[in-house]
Amino acid sequence: MYTYIWICFFLVITCISGNNHELNIDGTTANGWEFVRELFQKNFVDERDLGASLAVYHQGNLVVDLRGGWFDKLKSKSYDNNTLQLVFSTTKGLVAAAVALCVQRGLLDYSELVTNYWPEYGQNGKENTTVADILSHRAGLPFDFSPFDDYLNWTLMISKLEQSQPVWKPGTAHGYHALTYGWLAGELVRRVDPKNRTLGEFIRDEIAKPLQIEFYVGLPSEQEYRVSPLDFKPNQTSYDDFNKNNTHRAEIPAANGITNARSLARLYAGLIGNVENNHYQRILTEDILKRAIKSNTPSHEIDFVLNVTTTFAMGFFLLDNVFPSLGAGVFGHQGLGGSIGFAVPAKNLSFAYVVNRLDTETIDIDHRYKSMINDIAQMINRNHATNLINMTGLCGNLRQNYKHDGTSLYMLVQPFLNFNTLLIGLSSQILGTGFQIDLTLTSRAWLHIRILLCLQSIDAFISSSPSAAVRQKITVRTARYFTFGVICFWFLHEIPYYFLQDLVMIENTSMCIMTNAIYAKYRSYFTYLDIYTLIPVIVISIFGSLTYYHTTRFGTGRTLSAFTRQMVKMGLFQTIAVILFNVPYTGEQIYFLTTTNLVKDAYRRAQEQLVTSFFAVYGYGPYMASLIFV
Ligand SMILES: *[C@@H]1O[C@H](CO)[C@@H](O)[C@H](O)[C@H]1NC(C)=O
Ligand SMILES: *[C@@H]1O[C@H](CO)[C@@H](O)[C@H](O)[C@H]1NC(C)=O
Ligand SMILES: *[C@@H]1O[C@H](CO)[C@@H](O)[C@H](O)[C@H]1NC(C)=O
Ligand SMILES: *[C@@H]1O[C@H](CO)[C@@H](O)[C@H](O)[C@H]1NC(C)=O
Ligand SMILES: *[C@@H]1O[C@H](CO)[C@@H](O)[C@H](O)[C@H]1NC(C)=O
Ligand SMILES: *[C@@H]1O[C@H](CO)[C@@H](O)[C@H](O)[C@H]1NC(C)=O
Ligand SMILES: *[C@@H]1O[C@H](CO)[C@@H](O)[C@H](O)[C@H]1NC(C)=O
Ligand SMILES: *[C@@H]1O[C@H](CO)[C@@H](O)[C@H](O)[C@H]1NC(C)=O
Ligand SMILES: *[C@@H]1O[C@H](CO)[C@@H](O)[C@H](O)[C@H]1NC(C)=O
Q: Residue 289 belongs to what domain range?
């Protein structure tokens, strides 16, 4: 009973506390990728994100394309399809791609001296710096203490860098060149480009245009209105200069790239393969890509600036140690405060996340995408062992999804319990009634878990709710608690049954009867009538019809994932099964309870016996019905 009180309490709280904020998540997810939307949405519910966009390419196709939240702190408008975002160092990956493209065209060579292309650089001990040194943060010029306005003047920064003295002998150590990387690598591109373009122009023409992406280094003024302002946490350093429009217009290639997740993910998809059914050709060949993402950092070398081990390839950050679940060969770049773009060639995957609420002090992987990436990896890494489970159809489907959907967890647990009940209960019925082999004492089924079915129908009701806030309330965690709770409840509940009954001889036949009159009454009035039948029928009918109302009335197809829709449909089917099979059984129970004190003749008793046997088997209907799914 407490279970029900608790559920009612929970539901009331859910209904009261829901509905006060709607989340404006927009975009699409491919079949099987719906869980990413739920995790993305959670970042807004938990207020880690204010406005953000997220995109994933798999096997060359855009499988996740989401954005949500607000353009700015005042929530003046939605963070939508048109919104652009400054992504700080995530831009460094784009610069690395531009340099790789120059290498591919024979304009640059990673192992050549910088002075071959840029003679003025050969001053003050930098004479022997190679292109690779610049790209992998080994050039020895990690620091720059110029006033911010100097960063907006390319020629000024270049002449300063030409005259700088390296902090270490170039090539002998590495340390993150947070800002200088951009000018150094960018100047190389500018110097070798036959058309004398700036780095920003080169990127626009040679990368953004062919891939049809938006990724600006040097934003055209007319796009300024689309840039979502960065929101810095009150206690953290605020880099307000990066919200100014003249900063956006300048080219600071290490830090002021402006893009969105869809573009960033397509850039990385376009580095590892053809995109969208060969609609966009890859921009780097397999061979050049291999060279561009090969580590140029001796293993375990400590980063001079960050004082941790970091691994750099030709401008790309190697992320194998950051995302071990994705396997080897993960390359890309993070940006200050939470943005990231990367690709995993072996998995044919690219991922991008861009944000306007910055957490500038998290050194570890950003929490916004940490678990998301593990779940994506899990989905992609499915191996042969899981194929076996997959072959059983629904179970395989559920196994992959139960982590994200409470209803499916019940669905996953239920077949096992049903099977148990059927195996033990039904076989003893058949043996007992059909063959007079009485196994009642040893094999009474205790797992009559129709309650789980109740929970599942409540869950389906909640997950089909038109309000996203209400849908958020049912989580897999609560589902796990309830499942565990129900199993424990039944186990404890059925223990007295085994102690309070005995085998006695009546008219030369052995019969199993209750030795405790109070417990016998409790079982007939409460266990059989209420817990087995009435309560499940009532709860399931109410929530089943409410769920049906939700799905037909609100056209929830728009907001529910395909998987959740399927769960809801299956829940509705079970509702029908329970009503079909349990309502007559309930009627039978009521009949026997109301006629216990009547004196019945032998003929009537024989009739009743027949009816009892029939319903004892008929009552297993719902279990059979749900087994159909397995
Ligand atoms: C990546 O996916 C594309 C599109 O399905 C395919 O053509 C390509 O061969 C895949 N690459 C790898 C390395 O699997
Ligand atoms: C978002 O923009 C892309 C590219 O411009 C377009 O293909 C897509 O249809 C847009 N989506 C929405 C929901 O506006
Ligand atoms: C550069 O390399 C040359 C030849 O190896 C060497 O003679 C010269 O001293 C080096 N210059 C610097 C600044 O290390
Ligand atoms: C940039 O710096 C150079 C060199 O100091 C200077 O000549 C030029 O006027 C500056 N340009 C701008 C736009 O301030
Ligand atoms: C690029 O600059 C070089 C030297 O400044 C010049 O000789 C060449 O004509 C320029 N090319 C273009 C396409 O403007
Ligand atoms: C932020 O600053 C306020 C007051 O300046 C302080 O009370 C609070 O603990 C700080 N929060 C963190 C996370 O440092
Ligand atoms: C740039 O910002 C300044 C001050 O915020 C504003 O006065 C100016 O009109 C803006 N320019 C453009 C092109 O948006
Ligand atoms: C670098 O890290 C080590 C251990 O992590 C620490 O002992 C050392 O003081 C740090 N050095 C600097 C310069 O922060
Ligand atoms: C396993 O099932 C999922 C759907 O749940 C499907 O997407 C996937 O391709 C299946 N895997 C195999 C190896 O059949």
A: 40-319+327-384
- Residue nearest atom 14 in ligand 4 by C-alpha distance: 153
* CA–CA separation, 208 and 202 (whole Å): 9
Whether 126 is in a domain gets the answer yes
Note whether residue 115 is domain-resident. Answer: yes
Q: Using the predicted structure, report yes or no on whether residue 275 has a pLDDT greater than 90.
A: yes
* Residue 474 dihedral angles phi and psi, to the nearest 5°: -85, 115
Would the pLDDT of 626 be above 60?
no
Pocket around ligand 9: residues whose beta carbon is below 6 Å from it?
Answer: 32, 382, 387, 390, 396-397, 400
Contact 477, 436 (CB under 8 A): no
Q: What is the pLDDT of residues 49-104, one digit of tens each?
A: 999 999 999 999 999 999 999 999 999 999 999 999 999 999 999 999 999 999 99
Q: What is the CATH number of the domain that holds 126?
A: 3.40.710.10
Counting from 1 in the atom list of ligand 3, the atom nearest the Cα of 127 is 13
Q: Which of 4-18, 91-105, 548-562, 567-581 has the lowest mean pLDDT?
A: 4-18
For residues 169, 174, 177, 183, the Cα torsion angle rounded to the nearest 10 degrees is 60
Short-list 445, 407, 266, CA closest to 349: 266
Report pLDDT digits (tens) over 332-363. Answer: 999 999 999 999 999 999 999 999 999 888 76
Task: Report the percent of the chain where pLDDT is more than 70.
Answer: 77
Cα–ligand 4 centroid distance for 72 (angstroms): 33
Return the structure tokens found at 234. 């009150």
Give CA–CA dist 595/123, Å, rounded. Answer: 107
Least Cα distance to 126 among 114, 116, 117, 136 occurs for 114
CA separation, residue 604 to residues 509, 513, 601, 608 (Å): 20, 21, 5, 6
Per-residue pLDDT reduced to its tens digit, 507-537: 666 666 777 778 878 877 777 777 777 777 7
Report the atom number in ligand 4 closest to the C-alpha of 153: 1
Q: Which residue has the higher pLDDT, 359 or 447?
A: 359
**Ligand 1 center–CA 346 separation, angstroms:** 9
Can you tell me the distance from the alpha carbon of 452 to that of 483, in angstroms, rounded to the nearest whole number?
A: 7
- Mean pLDDT, the chain, rounded, equals 83
Cα 360 to averaged position of ligand 6 atoms, centre (Å): 15
How many angstroms separate the CA atoms of 196 and 192, rounded? 8
Q: What CATH number did the domain enclosing 487 receive? A: 1.20.1070.10
Give Cα 572 distance to the centre of its chain: 26
CB atoms within 10 A of CB 433: 16
Number of domains comprising the chain: 2
- Confidence class for position 245, pLDDT limits 50, 70, 90: very high
DSSP 186-230: HHHHHHH-TT---HHHHHIIIIIHHHT--EESS--GGGGGGBPPP
Q: Is residue 446 part of a domain?
A: yes
